[in-house]
Amino acid sequence: MHSSGLWRPLRRRDYVISARPWRAALYLLTSVPLGAATLLTLVLLAVAGSALAVVLVGLPLLLVLALSGIPLASLERRRLRLVDSTPLADPHREPPGTGLAAWLRTRLQERSTWRELGYALLFATVLWPLEALAVGAMLLVCGGLMTTPAVMAAGGDGEAKVLKLWIADSYPEAFAVLAAGVLLLPVLAYPLGALAAGRAVLTRQLLSVPESGADSRLQELDRSRMRLVDAFEAERRRIERDLHDGAQQRLVALSMTLGLARLEGPAEPLGGLLAKAQGEADVALVEIRELIRGIHPQVLTDRGLPAAVEDIADRSPIPVDVRLDVPGRLLEAVESGVYFAISEALANVAKHSGATRASVRGGVAFGRLAVEVEDDGQGGARLAADGGEAGAADGGEAGAADGGAGAADGGAGGSTGTVGGARVGTGLQGVADRLSVLGGSLLLSSPPGGPTVFRLEVPCPPARSRT
Q: What confidence tens digit (pLDDT) does each residue in 71-83 have?
């Protein structure tokens, strides 16, 4: 179990001289102001909400009280990293739609929300006072021993009371007490580390939702799905290499051979046929180069997502402004999925929107990459899905991914959409499915008269290895 890893450092010989005792002390010390602030917040919300509930003004306060465990739990997951290097995942799921109402409905239906509220109550009433008592006792004992010479010098009477237990009446005795306090520090570091480890185990147990059998199967299904995505990307890269190193090189050699044959000056009609054959070889070479770029552009592999999107913008028939703030490199599957989503969105803008300008902007926040593709076209995009499920039309919004629900740019099952009366293909449905596999979502907003906004969001853990 993971909890055993929290106790293992206490058995190491270098525990005292490592940074772990200090991190444990900081973990427990920061609980005190945070716990006091949590207690004050909960009491104020409960009292004010209950008092004002009769005039309905207190109902929003009671709602905030019910949700108050969410920000505390988010902060606790970050604070846990002081003593536990393994991150604690956020158990909340993404809302199926946008807006405050969808967010509230999702959060109030989640078991994690109520577990986090229970944790907030336990933290505010029990945990932080115990931690304050433990850390305070350690500081009182060690500090009282080590400050004995200073107290004796400040008193001026040649004696000092040590921890209110006995009196040191000489400087040799006072410095002996100071030495005892210094020697006691590493001894007390072990119970302090044990307390911090136990506190971390309790936090992890309370803030992580226990996995049921169905949840475990779903998580295994998600992991299997991600492995399939990785295998698909690896196969795409293999096909790209084979085309680049095999078929493309053979076409180049064929074109050169035909050119050399034409230099020999053969008589007609052989010379005309050679020229035609060389022209066809050159066309095939251009097409295979475009195919290679479409499978996986080299600029995406070498320089990352922002540079690859800049390359798309440069090749777009309409001007495109790009503002992407992506720190570092992301997982290859994430970069590839977002790249092709943006590419498909810009292709639709160029073909169907009648726009004169487009923009791509986005960045990373709270572990998710959000990108918007907006154009100044005529708008009026309509989404539809089989089975009677309608998408966004006349300014509405629809989720095109996230659990496989919804449709984009024409919907599912081969249905098509329109932009300003023009027929739209189903390319974005494949993009939506691809983002769904990554745990992402694709939304569309397109009121009549514009603007049309494609918004995609996808989790973006940093890439640990790109080999």
A: 999 999 999 888 8
CA–CA separation, 100 and 98 (whole Å): 7
**284 class by beta-carbon count within 10 Å (0-12 exposed, 13-18 middle, 19+ buried):** middle
Give the pLDDT band (50/70/90) at residue 110: confident
Q: What is the C-alpha separation between 311 and 308, in angstroms, rounded?
A: 5
Looking at residue 379, the DSSP 8-state letter turns out to be: B
Q: What is the pLDDT of residues 240-289, one digit of tens each?
A: 665 666 666 767 777 777 777 767 666 667 766 777 777 777 777 776 66
Amino acid at residue number 158: G
The CA angle 133-136-138, to the nearest 5 degrees, is 110
DSSP 3-state of 443: strand
Closest listed residue to residue 318, CA positions, set 343, 347, 361: 347
Query: The pTM is what?
Result: 0.48
Which strand ranges, in their side-by-side order, compose the sheet holding 441-445? Answer: 320-325, 358-365, 368-375, 452-459, 441-445, 397-399
Q: Count the helices and strands in the chain (H runs, E runs).
A: 16, 10
Integer-rounded Cα Rg, in Å, for the chain is: 32
Beta-strand pair 358-365/320-325: parallel
22 or 227, greater pLDDT: 22
Average pLDDT over residues 139-145: 79
Which residues, listed in sequence order, are joined to residue 374 by a DSSP beta bridge? 359, 453
The encoded tokens of residue 354 equal 């009648």
Q: How far is residue 461 from each of residues 219, 264, 335, 363, 367, measured CA to CA in Å?
A: 17, 59, 11, 13, 7
List Cβ neighbours of 347 (8 Å cut-off, separation of 6 or more). 427
